[in-house]
Amino acid sequence: MKENILFEPYPLKTMTLRNRMVMAPLTRGRAEADGTPNDLMARYYRQRTEAGLIVSEATAISRGGVGWLGAPGIYTDAHVAGWRKVTEAVHEAGGRIFLQLWHMGRASHPDFLDGELPVAPSAVAADEWSRTPLGKKRYVVPRALELDEIPGIVNEYAAAAERARDAGFDGVEIHGANGYLIDQFLRDGSNRRTDAYGGSVANRARFLLEVTEAVCGAWSPDRVGVRLSPTGGYNDMRDGDPPATFGYAAEALNSFGLAYLHLMEALPGHPLAGTHERISPMLRTIYQGALIINGGFDAQLATAALARGEADLVAFGMLFLANPDLVRRFREGAPLNAPDYATLYTPGPQGYADYPALEA
After folding, report:
1. Rounded distance, CA 215 to CA 112, Å?
2. pLDDT band at residue 2, thresholds of 50, 70 and 90?
3. What pLDDT is attached to residue 360?
4. Given a cut of 80, is residue 271 above it in pLDDT?
């Protein structure tokens, strides 16, 4: 009997993944107050090494990119040492893990930034709320980046990639999704610039492509992935023409020889589904490398999508959160644990490292 395509090994450039199931990046808020990863995080990731590839939770590339309580960083020696414990635990269990590189841009708050305004492509606030160290507050109007500041942030992405390599990661994923800084440049709802980084699709994609070039130069293209969310509305995001915007980005990313392109685009009916029709099928025809899709898939839907050639790998978020042995459960058709939404971001192991495996 032929193996389900979901469980087949997949050759991802210079590495072979044990299956086509990816653990999606999941912010969990368990790092130390200074952003240093800890032993609890190492335990959590090790539990989920059945995944063909783990993409870590979003990780701040710099002090100015911070904006989430308990989120980790990758901009100090302590961060590198903390993450090294995680990568060693994952590798000891036979897993593969990429670090997701994150700058929150306007989706931060002065409470995280010593009173300074968060930066963004334009002075346009997100109509959402931030959970700051001093309580829940509305996002503020950010400060528009000066033209001569942008290269410095591009360099911060490259430096973060170098630190990720030093920490033992198998690669990095550039977080260009979910309304954070790169996404803010890319979409016209948040980018009102009139210089070389605003206006046309080519100008709005410039920051994404400069970051990608810098990160590939700091490590190697086959160790770099990019994540985009073409139609997602999270963090008050919108774009006037997603097919044109993201079609351009996908075509431009072809030139880098990346490890993969990762699309977060929820299926209809999913809480994160956008108002625009999904364009991942269209992007599949444009992007020539390995494609990961994510957003509400279960075993049956993922298998069908792979069989139709809609993607090469499928990422699962909440299912991996609640089921550390998700691959085994899918393979055996076993019942799934339900996620405990009340403990998504709370301190400690509850709702984090205490979900039972099948044998328990």
Report:
1. 26
2. low
3. 57
4. no
Q: Which region among 122-131, 170-179, 254-263, 271-280 has the lowest average model confidence (pLDDT)?
A: 271-280
Q: 180 an active-site residue?
A: yes
Separation of first and last alpha carbons in the chain = 30
- From 45, 180, 197, 234, the catalytic residue: 180
pLDDT tier for residue 1 given thresholds of 50, 70 and 90: very low
| Higher-confidence position of 360 and 336 | 336
In sequence order, which residues have a C-beta less than 8 Å from that of residue 221 and are 6 or more positions away? 256, 257, 258, 259
Phi-psi region of 94 (alpha: psi -120 to 50; beta: other; left: phi over 0): left
The predicted-structure confidence for 62-120, as pLDDT tens digits, reads as follows: 999 999 999 999 999 999 999 999 999 999 999 999 999 999 999 999 999 999 999 99
Which residues contact residue 216 at a Cβ distance below 8 angstroms, ignoring those fewer than 6 apart? Answer: 224, 256, 258
Residues 6+ apart with CB under 8 A from 297: 267, 305, 314, 315, 316
The whole-angstrom distance between residue 35's C-alpha and the CA centroid of its chain comes to 17
**CB of 149 closer than 8 Å to CB of 119:** yes
